[in-house]
Amino acid sequence: MWSEFAVYFRLGIEHIADIRRYDHILFIAALTVAYSISHWRQLLIPVTAFTLGHSATLALATVGAIRINTALVEVLIPITFLLTSVFNILDSGIAQNDGSGSHGLPRHQSVLYVLAGRFGLIHRLGFSSFLKAVLGAEHSIVVPLLAFNIGLEIGQILIVVVLFTVGALMRGGSGWTDTTGCWWGSGATGGVALTLI
Fold it and tell me: Which of 4, 2, 14, 48 is CA-nearest to residue 151?
């Protein structure tokens, strides 16, 4: 059992960290750039919302309870981080204009939480095709599914750590404010999203 868990746990980490499948990384980046490193605890809320949204969907899609239009999912995934990027820019602009900015903390965090939860559903539909192919020969999918999900989430947290580190280095070296960093980061992820739609 533990050897099976380890195999699928590693597979989950490798799948999320694979630079060739960078769409998921870009969505995490779109979430992360809205927060400064001092507010990492608040970032855990949308990341957790994303996790809750996609974990149930992955399970349902893997067992065949949800049918997937792969072409539609492939279009919807870049739209998720495009919309998140646009929200980040608009939200930080509003906060700057009315003086309500909280230094690296999104003004309308609740909207970001809802976006993360809803978009998690879409992203996990993309993973389910891959996982169904991998689990084809398994008699029980409980342990593999759990291990794969945990591996994905550990990989996701590692991505957040890397993004925070890069963001801190860029902001410290260039004198950028949190708002400027959010605008540039969101603009970059949004720009990539437009090329994928």
Answer: 14
- State the Rg of the chain over Cα: 17
C-alpha–C-alpha distance, residues 4 and 43, integer Å? 32
* Residue 158 lies in domain: 2-196
Spatial contact of 22 and 78, defined as CB atoms under 8 Å apart: no
Asked if 10 and 147 count as a contact pair (C-beta separation under 8 A), the reply is: no
pTM: predicted TM-score of the whole model, two decimal places: 0.75
pLDDT tens digits for range 22-76: 777 888 888 888 887 777 787 877 777 776 666 677 677 666 677 767 777 778 8
- Structural domain tally of the chain? 1
Tokens matching residue 187: 């603009």
Q: Do 148 and 11 meet the contact criterion of CB atoms below 8 Å apart? A: yes
Residue 108 DSSP label: T
